[in-house]
Amino acid sequence: MAITVRNLTKFYGTEKAIDDISFDVKTGEILGFLGPNGAGKTTTMKIITCYMPPSSGTVEVDGYSIHDHSLEVRKKIGYLPELNPLYTDMNVVEYLDYAARLHGVDKTKLKQQINAMIEVCGLKEVRHKDIGELSKGYRQRVGLAQAMIHDPDVLILDEPTSGLDPNQIVEIRNLIRQLGRAKTVILSTHILSEVQATCDRVVIINDGKIVADGTPAQLQQEFRGAEAISLELKANVQNAMTDIFPKLKGLPHVESVEYVGGMDGIHKFSVLAAKGSDIRESLFRQAVNEQWVLLELSRKVTSLEEVFHKLTKA
Amino acid sequence: MNFKTSLANIGTIFRKELRSYFNSAVAYVVIVVFLAIVGWFHTSNLFLANVASLRLMFELIPVVFLFVIPAITMRLLAEEKKSGTIELLTTKPLHDIDIVLGKFLAAWALVGVALLLTLVYYITIAALGDIDNGPVVGGYFGLLLMAGVYIGIGVLASSLTDNQVVAFIIGFVIVFIFFMLDKVLMYVPEGLTSIVEFLSVDYHFSNIARGVIDSRDVIYFLSLLGFTLYLTTLSLERRKW
Questions:
Q1: pLDDT tens digits, B28-52
Q2: Contacts of B88 in chain A (CB under 8 A)
Q3: Is the dihedral of CA A241, A246, A252, A253 positive or negative?
Q4: Minimal C-alpha gap between A200 and chain B (Å)
Q5: Are B88 and A103 in contact (CB < 8 Å)?
Q6: Chain B partners within 8 Å of A101 (Cβ)
Q7: Which residues pair with B169 in a beta bridge?
Q8: Is CB count within 10 Å lower at the N or C end of chain B?
Q9: What is the β-pairing status of strands A201-206 and A30-34?
Q10: Alpha-carbon span B21 to B30, nearest angstrom
Q11: Beta A184-189 vs A30-34: how paired, if at all?
């Protein structure tokens, strides 16, 4: 069930919330929608779920347009809105029953479907409790259960783990991974580790525009800066600054060397080399030549976090 | 999306709203307050007048409606807007009018239950003396239609805001205006009196309550009701503008 987003623009009054956004989500893919708060993630999701129309542009879900076949689109989508609104005066089973009926789940399958969701989302102990009495983690599960009650092909989850404690976050993430296997999922977040942990692909959005689109690995590759290497040596020298420093600095591709510190003959350096180069081998050979003992040699990988900062900091 | 699924959706929302009235204290408070006020004034006058008639009750209930109905309807959409559940509801595959109708019918059913319970007063009076049943049937029919219009106005008010108190006040003011129209006729320029009178809820209600059910009065109520529901649907769609 593919999703096609084309040239989506939305104005709130005169303010442009999103600006000419286009992307595709393939069937079975988990897409992470990443961006700082207020970048336009929620607006885009509200448009895809037919809560509100775009000012211009279109979205197609499995070939159905949000403009012409809104009801068809809504049938195919399970949606967890931002802040997970719930009817606090209903109990879990009542609420799931309500959601299932509104989604047109067949009457003969209602019970079975509700029980299946209670099982999958781990709601067994609280099934007859009022939603208002539940903890945040359970509420989030109820929100997820509600979104999946009609076994939709597409799941749209707006910050599904916000406000949860670390254990709950891991649980919800696993749940999404597990359920997302057979579904097309769009998941928004501003937590980067979440994207790395759950998503096949990332779209980074900033100020209403898409600034990056690719797998987490691709983005790390594409947006990495200079190669940073941290180095720790044991060397019997009088002065590290004069005896070691120039020899490192003189290696090919090395752009800068920083002496981090040292004691008892152990010296730490941080070496920056030209983008795309790999100087680990020459560092090693240099150390052998000079009879330094190499205690540590590691390359720092550009994290998605750094990519994110780079792209979203104006 | 055909007619049948629309009906099913209206039914689902209707049941949920009605259950929510009876699960919270709202339904019981409304019914008790309604019966207490009507019962007190009705019986205290009954013994003074010494006439076996429900006329007084039918004059009293429209006044009670002015306060009770906006209180019943104020939460219907305003609460969903406040808590954000409106987003869940409107992204489900159903028409906006289904949402409005389901909620409207739930409030109407609640008022219907309250009216049904006032039959106790009818039974006591019927046991005490001869009662003319024509005005009674007309009176109840008229009250149901009037309640429908008031609820339509209340739901519309509830759709305009996410604050229940504001929804109550808007609903009350509009309902009050419709109620007062035929009581201020003497201040209205002569050419307009018939129009103002025709717009007044009480004018049509008193026609029906006399026991004469005229299609003009029924059409007045139904078209006003339809108009409020139409406006509510438009107001719900406002997010799309």
A1: 998 998 899 888 877 777 777 777 6
A2: 79, 81, 85, 99, 146
A3: positive
A4: 26
A5: no
A6: 8-9, 12
A7: none
A8: C
A9: parallel
A10: 10
A11: parallel
